[in-house]
Design goal:
This protein is an alpha+beta fold and about 375 residues long. It has 14 helices and 14 strands.
Length: about 375
C-alpha cells in the first residue's frame, strides 16, 4: 500500500483504490484510515511510512484546539472549477500555489481515540515527543469540548461546539484505549484513570443509550463486524485488554474474553469481518510482555532499550509516577516505586529480577 498510488506524496493515505491493482484512489483522506495504518506501519517496522502518516495528521488534520478533523476532501478548486483529485495529482512543488482541499473539522470522539493511541505508541517507540504531546493535546480537546450539557461525552464537536448526539460505546472504548496508550507513553496515570472510568461506563451498561432511539422505542443494536473502524464489540474488547495489561485488574481480562468467546465461531468463519476481534483473541492467547522502567532519566539508555523492545506494554516512569499508578489501582506498578533505576521485564505480571544494564533488556520476546 505504501508503494502504491494510495499514498500521497506528503505521507497521508487516500481512502481506498477504485481498481484491483491499487490504482486510481478515491482521493478523500480519512482520520480513521490513517490512524490505523500508522499502527500497522509501526508494527511492521516501516518507520518511513509511520513518519509520513504522522506528518499528515499533525500538518493537515490537526485543528487549532488540538483535536483531529475527520477527513480531508477529495475535491478542490483549480482554475475556477471543482476538481476531483486534481490537487493531489499535481507535483508537490506546484501545490503551494493551489488552495488545498478543505478539511472536515468535526472532532469525532472515537476517531480521535484511534489517533491518540497511534501517535502515543509511535511517539514513544521512535522517541518523538512532539507526537506524544499532540496525542495529549487531542485528548484534552476531546475531553474538554466533546461534552453535552450534562457533562457526558458526546459523539463529536465542530468549531468548539459539542453535538447533541451521544457518544456510542465504541466512541468511549476507542478513546479509553487511546488514553491507556497515552498514560504508558507519558508516565502520567491521569489518562489511565480517565480511560478506566470511560471503559467502566461501557462495561456497566451506562453508555451508548441514545435518547432519540429510545423515544421511538428502538433498541440500539451493537455492531459485531468491522468496517472502516473496529466493530463496537471489538473496540470494547480491545480497550478492556489494554486496561488489563496495564494492571487495572482481572475484571477487564474477563470482559475482553467474554466478548471474544461470544463471537469466536463467527469470527473464525468470517475472519475478514472480525479482524479486530481476532487481534484481541490473539492478545488473550499469549501472556503479555510488560516492560516497566523506573528512572529519573526518561531519555536515558535504559529507557531507550525498553522502548525499542517488542512488548505489549512499555512504560517509563519516575518513582513518584510508579507510586501514583500503584495508588490508583494499577497493579503492574506495585512494589516498583522505591527502587533506583531499574527495568522490570514481566510476563502477565510475573516479573524477572530487575536489571539496570540496558544490554540486559532483550529486544525480542
Amino acid at each position: 500500500m505504501a508503494a502504491s498510488d494510495l499514498r500521497d506524496a506528503d505521507g497521508g493515505f487516500f481512502r481506498y483504490a477504485t481498481r484491483r491493482d491499487w490504482t486510481v484512489p478515491h482521493y478523500e483522506r480519512m482520520l480513521t484510515d490513517n490512524a490505523q495504518l500508522l499502527e500497522v506501519a509501526l508494527d511492521a517496522g516501516d518507520e518511513e511510512t509511520v513518519r509520513g502518516i504522522a506528518r499528515f495528521l499533525l500538518g493537515t488534520l490537526r485543528r487549532k484546539d488540538g483535536g483531529f478533523g475527520a477527513a480531508q476532501d477529495s475535491e478542490s478548486w483549480i482554475d475556477g472549477a471543482r476538481s476531483e483529485g486534481g490537487y493531489y495529482l499535481r507535483p508537490v512543488a506546484e501545490r503551494a500555489a493551489l488552495e488545498p482541499p478543505a478539511v472536515d473539522g468535526k472532532v469525532i470522539t472515537g476517531w480521535n481515540g484511534l489517533a491518540i493511541a497511534a501517535l502515543a505508541r509511535a511517539g514513544a517507540a521512535l522517541g518523538e515527543d512532539v507526537w506524544i504531546a499532540a496525542a495529549a493535546e487531542a485528548a484534552a480537546a476531546v475531553l474538554g469540548t466533546n461534552r453535552g450539557a450534562d457533562g457526558a461525552l458526546v459523539r463529536a464537536s465542530l468549531d468548539g461546539r459539542a453535538s447533541a448526539a451521544v457518544a456510542t460505546a465504541a466512541d468511549l472504548a476507542l478513546l479509553a484505549d487511546g488514553l491507556f496508550a497515552l498514560a504508558a507513553a507519558t508516565g502520567d496515570v491521569a489518562p489511565a484513570v480517565t480511560g478506566r472510568d470511560l471503559l467502566d461506563e461501557v462495561l456497566d451498561g451506562a453508555a451508548g443509550d441514545d435518547p432519540l432511539l429510545r423515544a421511538q422505542g428502538i433498541a440500539a443494536s451493537p455492531d459485531h463486524t468491522d468496517g472502516d473502524l473496529p466493530s463496537d464489540t471489538a473496540a470494547v474488547a480491545q480497550a478492556a485488554l489494554s486496561a488489563w495489561r496495564l494492571g487495572a485488574g482481572d475484571r477487564y481480562r474477563a470482559a475482553a474474553a467474554a466478548r471474544v468467546e461470544a463471537l469466536a465461531s463467527r469470527a473464525l468463519a468470517q475472519p475478514f469481518a472480525h479482524g479486530s476481534l481476532l487481534r484481541v483473541a490473539a492478545g488473550l492467547a499469549a501472556a503479555p510482555r510488560q516492560l516497566v522502567v523506573v528512572t529519573e532519566d526518561a531519555g536515558g539508555a535504559l529507557a531507550a532499550a525498553a522502548r525499542g523492545a517488542d512488548a505489549d506494554v512499555v512504560a517509563v516512569v519516575t518513582p513518584a509516577q510508579a507510586a501514583a499508578f500503584a495508588a490508583s489501582g494499577f497493579e503492574l506498578f506495585e512494589g516498583k516505586e522505591a527502587t533506583a533505576e531499574r527495568a522490570y521485564d514481566c510476563r502477565a505480571f510475573v516479573c524477572r529480577l530487575p536489571v539496570s544494564d540496558p544490554a540486559a533488556v532483550s529486544r525480542a520476546r
